[in-house]
Amino acid sequence: MPSEAELPALAARLLWAAFGLGLVFGAVARRTHFCTMGAIADIVASGDWTRMRMWVLAIATAMIGFNAMVAAGWVQAGDSLYATPRLAWLAHVLGGLLFGFGMVLASGCPNRTLVRAGGGNLKALVVLLVLGVSASMTMRGLVAVLRVASVERAALQLPATQDLPSLLALAGGWPRSALALLLGLGIGALLLAWVLARPEGRSRAVWLGGVGIGAAVVALWWLSGVAGHLAEHPATLEPAFIATDSRRMESFSFVAPAAYALDWLMLFSDASRTLSLGVAGSAGVLLGAAAVALADGSFRWEGFGGAEDTANHLAGAALMGVGGVTALGCTIGQGISGLSTLALGSFIAVAAIVAGAWLGLRWQLWRIERNG
């Protein structure tokens, strides 16, 4: 167990490791065009399910890896933000719808926005700034007051943490670790079978993107939940997770870290503002994508196409910030990290995000048809 004097060095090692995982994440996402909004758009526009299979493969990889760690006794789903006993179902639904609609307007989710910014897209940089401000307002500002007074009130208090293994263990008396392994492997195998069911699910790009992104999520779970876990913090003598914003174990998510990154940059001289794994990982994604864009010659400066384009991206960024915080995550935070814990709220949020994106795409198509 490290002493209090050794904690800064431990935190620094964890941050550098998270940054390295972010580099891998960003490089893989750029190389394979990994994008959840793009996957949904491909289906709506042309019936192409290739990128959807990539996203599902990432979910399966993360789900199997996370629950294998639960079965080994390394981590517990209840130590994450996603699997608390309180199921804020309305926040997941409304936040997911707002986020999904917003990512269509902004031409991609926060992960894709980081990757696009790394490739020289200045529109994506503006989206990141607006996303960070709106997310901060939803966590601690005016929107936060409205959120807590409205949608947060509609919640169920469950008798156990909301991950499926814990709920089933309580209901049937079975060992939670065995249920985690059974459900993680079982659901993951079903998802994997669906990916492999069509030829496009067997392509090298799908497997590089799906397994690469999913493995990065598992690795960050291990980093925060095992390497960064203290059974007793030397100052408080209570369990602690080092260098996380939520004070729980965390994996990749990109809405709240955008707010915390702005907070750290603006208040850098305040010694209480420290870097977190989420911020370090996001920085790695940006630079990893930039490295690939520069290496393959795809780096291009790109700006807004006009007033309407600007308005759409600003509105989309704001909706993603508000919706992502309200739903407790994005297409990566809830869509891969959250689903890997088998939390009920994550399933609800992801379904709402997909529905919101579908509505956004249908709205865009309707506008195009109406304008001739």
What does this structure look like?
The chain has one domain. The chain is 68% helix and 2% strand. It contains 15 helices and 4 strands. The strands form 2 sheets. A two-stranded antiparallel ribbon has the order 1-2. A two-stranded antiparallel sheet has the order 3-4. The radius of gyration is 20 Å and the shape is globular. The termini are far apart. The mean pLDDT is 95.
Summarize the structure in short.
With 372 residues, this protein is mainly alpha-helical. Helices cover 68% and strands 2% of the residues.
Number of helices: 15
State which percent range the strand residues make up: under 5%
Number of domains: 1
Per DSSP E runs of 2 or more residues, the count of β-strands stands at 4
Helix percentage: 55-70%
Average pLDDT, rounded to a whole number, is 95
Biggest sheet descriptor = 2 strands, antiparallel
Describe how the helices and strands are arranged.
Blueprint: H1 7-32, H2 36-46, H3 50-71, E1 86-87, H4 89-105, H5 110-118, H6 122-140, H7 142-149, E2 156-157, H8 164-172, H9 176-196, H10 204-227, E3 229-230, E4 240-241, H11 256-266, H12 277-296, H13 307-326, H14 333-340, H15 344-370
Helix pairs in contact: 1-5, 1-10, 1-12, 2-3, 2-15, 3-9, 3-10, 3-14, 4-13, 4-15, 5-6, 5-12, 6-7, 6-11, 6-13, 8-9, 14-15
Keywords:
single chain; 372 residues; two-stranded antiparallel sheet; 4 strands; 2% strand
